Target: tetrahydrofolate synthase
Amino acid sequence: MNFTNTQDVISYLYSLPKFHEKADLSYIKRTLAALHNPQDKVKTVHVTGTNGKGSTCYYLSNLLQKAGQKTGLFVSPYVFEFNERIQLNGQNISDDRLIDLANQIEKVLSKIRQTEPDFALATFEYEVAMAFLYFAQEKCDFAVIEVGIGGEHDKTNVITPEVSIITTVGLDHEQIIGPTLEDIAREKSGIIKKNRPVVLGNIPEEVLQIILAKANDENAPVKLWNKNFRMETEQNKDMIYRDGNSTLSFTARPRVEGIDISVAVRAFKLFNLKLTDLQIERAINETVIPGRYQILATKPLIILDGAHNIQAMKNLLTFAHEQQQKRHGTIRILIMMMKDKDLTEVFALFKPTDRVMLTTIDYPRAAKEADFPPEVRGKYEYHSDWQKTYTQMRQASQANDILLVTGSFYLVGNILQMEEKNEDRKQH
Model:
């Protein structure tokens, strides 16, 4: 097979199986060995966590770039285009390089298939192989790698990182890495490596010991949020980071974003790279993370956030309700979710005063009306046309109101693209 355009590469990737029957790393390791183990040619940072891992990766990647490091970034999901998943110095991978990498991988896979005709990678494994190959060929100084799901059995867990990061542990993907919080903590602690430091974010007390025991077994030094470093957040004031050696100030954001920033800063400081306190503050304040607490407008306040599990939704709603108390307006929520998520639990988080609309997008896993629990359908209106519904909700919002778009990065991405087109039309 020889790819000639990006769409063919992406269509092919999504035609591959999602998972293997075995949850081991044998397929990805075999493929990377055939590619001369590109993952070992670059210094890496490995990031897992139920929430906050994407934000932490973006903040850390920006800090490394500002310190003059050629920095790779592998994150998911994408908001605008597939190429976002693999970045170099803040730029998405080009279509040409994507095609070239896929062809290089196809070449080694066809060799493997000469002796093992049924050998095939799952979608995410293929993406991981492309990312590591790209970062090695571009001679990155560092690559920041976000796991797909979990940790120990995740297909990115083929590296010995300079630093491991676990942002949070909560319930998500229970059917794959659960079912309990303890199971999820054990799985995520699998990215901790021998003699390599680990930075821990806001880990629930009941599972902290599991992670600390793993760090102890691996002789991995631990930096723990609220013990070795912390972020003090006061409403509408700057956030203050402290770690014993320095005090830094960042523009006000939701508390959870503050924790992600503090984790990224603490991990960055382990590298002893030359960046002044002022440069660190500037790098963080300049970082834009697509689809995460992204503010589109302030009158009304329009917030896009791809929160798609209990913990993320709880954090987002806490922030929105805090804002509501200050603005004395109405909260409107446009939500679309995947049908394999904890739909009942998520909808239990809304207040009776929140005006919620259900919608969907054209995507196989997207929940349609019948996929929502009966009590949710009985409570909230469902409109299949997300574009029309968003436009109506935006028009109905007064200057002091809040409009949230949430539940999935796919919906957030669609809204961002729609807003961008509207902006272009205004300018021409």
